[in-house]
Fold this protein.
Amino acid sequence: MSDWSDVASLSKKRTKKHFYRLKLLNLFDEYKSFLIVGVDNVGSNQMQKTRIALRGRAVVLMGKNTLMRLVIREKMKTIPSLEATLPYVRGNMGFVFTNENLNDIRKVILENKVPAAAKSGAIAPVDVFVPPGPTGMDPGQTSFFQALNIATKIARGAIEIIDTVHLIVKGDKVSSSAVALLNKLNIRPFSYGIEVLQVYDNGSIYDAAILDLDEDSLLQKFMNAVGKIAALGISVGYPSTASVPFQMRDAFKKICALGLEAGYEFKELNDLKSGAAAAAASSSASAAKEEKAEEKEEESEEESSEGGMGFDMFGGGGDEEEEEEEEGEGDEGDEGDEGDEEEEEEE
């Protein structure tokens, strides 16, 4: 597109294109990220509500695809990464420019949806099911359900659907008979809104589904990939940013092992020896403390068991009393024996 310097000499249509070009070029310079959105079956009222919701946070720009591609090709001279967006500039689409969190902007866009009735010939975005139950239609319209192979019965003077009916399959064209049935049942199965297709962020373009991943999931996937790269580099002996730390660690282990076997000392090995000795000393000290504590516990248990055997339930020494009673009984028996002996001598 030529650079128009004299805007006053241009026609109204070309003037409009000129200012649109300048606006799009400025947006590419001002914002580092933008969303490529599809606006099929989206009305002007929905677009207006979306613009209001994003006011101050993002800029929504629609336009002719041919003019968009021309501006992108022009801007590719300074931002070559924009070339990746050209395959997506087709159909009923637009741009949402922002410097804020892309996931937050996407949520605001997707929230603005309105229910819509099915249209004949349209591609179904979701599966449509008709629930069982009364329809409120008179029995004279039974032939209509028979034409759609829907099992019905007459209940209380009205047609009632027996089982759930899978009326429309996702991705198929909506038939006129299905539209008529949904209208009769007053069912609006679809909901239309702005759809986020692709994301351009700092020179990278990717599918919008990536935004559903949180930071923890992305970090986990990244670390898994780094681990695989490191393992591959170690196995083939090829150094890389991911594998070098592990290769250096293994090499240091081998050097330390050789130093211990050969009796050669160096600073790092001495540090390891002192650390190992300190760890062994601390572990042995803790083990000794545990043994002493166990011995004390055993002694206290033995003392408590021995002390508890000498007392009855009233706190007295039951065994001592029994011994005294036995001794008393024994003395009385001895005195009785001596009396018997004296009587025998007198006789």
Q: What stands out?
A: Residues 31 and 325 are 107 Å apart (CA to CA). The longest strand covers residues 195-201. Confidence is low (pLDDT under 50) at residues 320-330, 341-347.
